[in-house]
Amino acid sequence: MSVRDNASVMAAALNKKEISAVELTNQHYEQIAAVDKDVHAFLYLDKEGALAQAEAVDKKRAAGEKLSPLAGVPLALKDVMTQKGIPTTCGSKILEGWRPPYDSTVVTKLKNAGVIILGKTNMDEFAMGSSTENSAYGPTHNPWDLTRIPGGSGGGSSAALAAFEAPLAIGTDTGGSIRQPAAVTGTVGVKPTYGGVSRYGLVAFSSSLDQAGPCARTVLDTALLHQAIAGYDNKDSTSINQAVPDVVAAAKKLDVKGMKIGVVKQLAGDGYQKGVEDKFNEAVAELVKLGAEIVEVSCPNFEYALAAYYLIAPSECSSNLARFDSMRFGLRVGDDGVKSAEEVMNLTRQAGFGREVKRRIILGTYALSSGYYDAYYGSAQKVRTLIKQDFDAAFTKCDVLVSPTAPTTAFKIGEKSNDPLAMYLNDIATIPVNMAGIGGMSLPCGLAAEDNLPVGFQIMSPAMKDDRMYLVGGALEAALLSKWGKPILDFAPKLAGSK
Amino acid sequence: MSLNYDQVIEKYEPTLGLEVHVELNTKSKMFCSCATEFGASPNTQTCPVCLGLPGALPVVNKRAIESTILIGLALNCSIAPYSRFARKNYFYPDMPKNFQTSQYDEPICVNGFLDVQIQTDEGEKTFKIEIERVHMEEDTGKSLHVGGSTGRIHGAQYSLLDYNRAGIPLVEIVTKVVPNTGKYAPQVARAYVAALRDILRGLKVSDVKMEQGSLRCDVNLSLAQINSGKLGTRSETKNVNSLRSVERAVIGEVIRQANRLEDGERIIQETRHFLEESGQTRPGRSKEKAEDYRYFPEPDLVPVVPDAKWIEELKKTLPEKPADRRKRLQSTWSVPDKEMAAMVNAELLDTVEETVLLGADPTKARSWWLGEISRIANDRSVAATELISVKDVAQVIELITKGELTDKLARQVVEGVIAGEGSPADVITKRGLKVVSDDSQLMKAILDAVTAQADTAQRVREGNIPAAGALIGAVMKATGGQADAAKVRELLLKHLGQ
Question: Whole-angstrom distance between the N-terminal and C-terminal Cα of chain B?
Fold first, then answer.
């Protein structure tokens, strides 16, 4: 048993009592101790809590209690999800020191499933960014090349997986924050259908787009985690009251014969790195070999997705982030007993929010202002409807849609940090999925020839048909694995001190 | 030289607009399951949702939607088949999320009306008050600014915040402009709020206690020269907390605005605060530069799409309209107008009806509640219904009717019950308050009295009936007031051959 194993392998070993949850947890803390000084995936480690949880799982197993499939397997939690008593910063200074008094529904479900929560992972501040460089606590480094970004906003979670610091991770995806980090780190990430996983306890960036989801190193592991966290929650009004599709069975099926797979014409070409397009096309060819039928589909309104997204998301964030006012939690600056409440709010927000967050708050405040609302927020909502219609039309012709996840492989830290527009373009292929509220997966499909860095393959499925992306993803993963002869992460250079 | 109300009204025409906020009496808050009880220790009825903690999400209280639809139906509104919540964004320390979840351009009830009656010089007149909208929102927390001279946040040394009220369901009922009230604007405003309060009470959706803030009224008022065909600039007087204050606030604003206009000044569009002591208003926040609340649809909540069948069912549960009910009770009980008005004003109509429903005679029920009990209640500044239960009053009245208590004894019983001595039966036993109805016992007392006052007895025998008073008094004294005076009189006169 090694930290390099997959979660399902670890689960089997735990089940057979070949290893205890405490031992497995300790192994991961050893790996974290060895590599995280270089990777910086974690913002907080809850060793004491995790080991207590592991011990409890071991006791239950020894007593012969029936445990859930992932009981005893460790996980890294994105620092945007609340966990009772554990610091939750969202990568922001403004929440420094805040320990939420309640568990998010995802955390409740993980705890109930006996999943061991190792700690909280780094992220772009309030999930705004595509590189994790916007974290107030310093960037996370891509385990494939420490000078490069691990994607964002959930770069901490994806890097933790790629560096074998955890076999499972939770991410959140507002415009690609699960899928793009998965793509650039050679891991798997799924944004479930909007409403498929409860948002209760997910600190909101853009409420109508945010969605928590599972991340892992294989499609099956991702499915197992998906099953553990998904389902209706009466604490989230936007949660869907329907049975969760059987994603685990779909991931194991490995059969795509006769499936119609749509390649989105608009998600290719200009701006896409050649090595990315090549690997994507090779993967499509693999699917053909497996018996799937390829159709080209056109989604003309995707062209406006990025612009509309950068009106809707900032608008909602300008309102969601208003509560960070220093009055009741987190940072407080300038409270000298003389300054007014307004001045203290002002100084706190000045000091507590980073540049990108401020940029989006200002953008959103402007877009919602009287006289501009119709032109900006109103128009963006119309675009959103058009994008939904594009997807609806496409899904009449095929079962799933595919595209590259991100237009490029991991770029250098600092390369785009002064060019917000270039940064925003990273999410050009992932944003339409959020705008329509459907499901999206990214899994690795090879290494780009020009830089030997992983390329992500995106699969998009209709709302509440999340099983379809697992079906296609599982089959493609198996085909690629046999082609490569070993998991893609085994091609990555070994980090100093790593197992 | 400032004009008084009568002088103003000869020259100016007031236009009213009323916004009423009602706290619903749901057990839990609008968007979470916290309790809503009034008066709990600060910050004991809170949770991540109503504290607006990061990550928390709202879930709509279905009961609050039901109550709002009922209000809309009772006010003759159409119920929107699709309505949405919206965020109203602004910063204030007692606003947990720094936005209020409210409704904006898609309210749940629209276009209703309420007829109100007032007494005019030409007799009773009905005014139709048109309702623009009825919508749902959440209340904010309460702040107490300490150390400043004004009690406002500016200049305060520190502020205390209580979030128990944050998230309590509020319904806002907004009228369209109410034109053509002429000099009756104050009475119309008051009658509207009173009628609205009665409707809400009848629906049992709110405690409607103005003094506790569960019903709050903002009075919008503008003046224009009579026949000018124009509308003046309006002021908005906030949180007027009693019916009388509504009336006074209108009068105060009419006079203030008119005198400004007379002085050649303009009316500033602003909020104003009503001053209970003087009946005047002081300026609040200017609304000249309209605050931009950046409303947008609340993405954390799904639209409210009430089922048409549900609305029909709710319609069937609507209680009798207060005005109709009043007319019905007045005629069944044969109550004169003045007494009826007194009962309504004292807010004892429900109580009297409940007492009657327990078998009490309507006239007796009314006179007990409005007389003796109200008198004690007024002395102690509490509500009559807090002193004694409807059941106990009905029981006392029953005993009077049966002849087991005299009015005088009954007053002692009521006093005893109010003093906490137990039920009427308990008080009667403990204080020994039975009517002496034993003839032989009475006769003994009569004979004693006749003997003691032989001269008086002789005068009665000779036909001087009023002289019997002294003898009856003596008998009543001898029996400790527990005899039925009429009975004593009858036996005495018979004994003396009259």
Answer: 74
